[in-house]
Design brief:
Blueprint: E1 5-9, H1 13-21, E2 25-29, H2 34-43, E3 47-50, H3 53-61, E4 66-68, H4 74-85, E5 105-108, H5 110-113, H6 119-124, E6 128-131, E7 137-138, H7 144-159
Parallel strand pairs: 1-2, 1-3, 3-4
Antiparallel strand pairs: 5-6, 6-7
Helix pairs in contact: 4-7
Length: about 160
């Protein structure tokens, strides 16, 4: 999979987390001004994602790669982005990034993170991943059904 690099303005925090889980390098720029966002997008070859029509127009005019996220629905946004940038709507833990800090995550042994997870989690799950940046531990818990459901709905919207 070709790694895509995005920079996202402050209106799209949830989308940032989704794209990171899907394996993309995403900088969440919640406090940057428009000019700074456009400069950083160009300098780092990042695709600027925004809901702000004026920012989008400015970015395109100034030669930055940008995409206007028009839909308030997360599922539709994921489908539209997957269509436009040709990526799969599947989480592959080998390339997934930390939704919190954007660092790579790696598979770890249960023993190595036992002190960082609840006993019930240790009892019920065998596979774990840890962020190499912030140390956050991940596993395919009950929340994974919601993640799968959202991605399945996005895949359906993609072919619709």
């Amino acid at each position: 999979m070709k790694e895509l690099k995005f920079i996202i303005d402050g209106m799209l925090g949830k989308l940032t987390r989704w794209l990171r889980m899907l394996g993309h390098d995403v900088e969440y720029a919640s406090s940057m001004g428009d000019k700074e966002l456009i400069q950083k997008a160009k300098k780092e070859s990042r695709i600027l994602l925004t809901r702000d029509v004026e920012l989008y127009k400015q970015a395109i005019t100034k030669g930055a790669d940008a995409f206007l996220v028009e839909n308030p629905n997360q599922t539709a946004n994921l489908a539209n982005l997957a269509r436009r940038f040709k990526f799969k709507l599947e989480i592959d833990m080998r390339v997934s990034r930390c939704p919190k800090c954007n660092s790579r995550i790696e598979a770890v042994s249960k023993a190595s993170i036992a002190d960082k997870i609840p006993t019930s989690t240790s009892t019920n799950y065998e596979e774990f991943w840890q962020c190499q940046g912030c140390g956050q531990v991940y596993w395919r818990g009950a929340h994974w059904k919601r993640i799968d459901k959202t991605l399945d709905e996005a895949k359906k919207a993609l072919v619709a």
